[in-house]
Amino acid sequence: MAIVPKKRVLPYIILGILKLNSQMTGSEIDAEFQHEIGEFWQTTHSQIYPELKRMVADQWIGQETSSQDRKQKWYHLLPAGEHQLQNWLTEPLTPSTDDEFPLKVFFIQDQSSPILYQLLTQELQIHQAKLTHLTQRMTTLFDHQTCQTANFGHYLILQRAIERETNSLQWLETMLKQLDG
Amino acid sequence: MAIVPKKRVLPYIILGILKLNSQMTGSEIDAEFQHEIGEFWQTTHSQIYPELKRMVADQWIGQETSSQDRKQKWYHLLPAGEHQLQNWLTEPLTPSTDDEFPLKVFFIQDQSSPILYQLLTQELQIHQAKLTHLTQRMTTLFDHQTCQTANFGHYLILQRAIERETNSLQWLETMLKQLDG
DNA sequence: AGATACATGTAACCTGTTACATGATTAA
DNA sequence: TTAATCATGTAACAGGTTACATGTATCT
């Protein structure tokens, strides 16, 4: 299990949100994190506003302080940002604990998107590797009944982890079959 | 979904490890995080050593710079630390993303521990609430076929999340039945 | 004796959280 | 007009990661 550097995903989520909606204010983006995105990723406006500022500076997004309405600023995706988003979506998934998979899938709109297929395949491999690792761990640690009773909690969660991975694999395989057919 | 302050768990994990092994050096504790605990929680020696220092100062653990052997220091659990560990294990689980459940279960040694039953029950309620929430979300967002195809990715992960919760609930119920019987 | 690995420790950095702050708009 | 809320922003803090540093065994 190689050590993988933690990736920053917040900017890409914001880009994804902007792609889906095309013209938004900061607080509208914030609202997304309280609702749908919030199921998978949490943040607050204290992170969003500085991030928007940075992305404007980097020309990933454009800002329009338009209209007479309040002090609101409207943001929209720029080509560079679109490019960054595509990069993030297609770059390899890593077996991290903070699950990037649902996050990326969230931004796939089209069922026939090649990126979707790619994501499912990558995720499948990750879970296969994990399952192999876990079952191996299980046999080396708990082949004797005595070990199970001596460290019951450890045994339980390992068993649970294996079941979870199995379930994930089942789902991924079903999905891939559906897309193929 | 109430907002819950993030809890610091590292010290309690270390206490748990020390409870299981009773006499350990810093690097031995570090090794645990590379092996079994590493499945559920990651950290490095840069966090462990200062944490050990703090816990020695707080009298949660004792330190012995014994023997002629190296510069090694041996740590062991003190009553105050034992107490802190028990507190952590029994305090209510929160529906956080970073899963405390497997972490706490890991440290349960005895199958008949009342804490195990408590943890399973708490986790059951959390997952029930989450499942209810997710299914509700599903019906409000995707009751029409058109919505599914327009935002296929979103639909997919919501479906997956529901399946995952269902699977978790099944497992938890099975376990609770086994403990009862 | 020199090189390598081990055990411990510290410092700089990055990111996310909490709390505070300001103007502008709506409600009473 | 005052109070409450909304939209935006900043500052202080806390926690974890990466990189650096030091001394001590072990190996050749």
UniProtKB/TrEMBL annotation, chains A, B:
Q: Which domain of life is it from?
A: Bacteria
Q: Which residues form the Transcription regulator PadR C-terminal domain?
A: 99-180
Q: Which residues form the signal peptide?
A: none
Outline the extent of the Transcription regulator PadR N-terminal domain. Answer: 14-86
Quote any Pfam family the record assigns.
Answer: PadR
The molecule here is called: PadR family transcriptional regulator
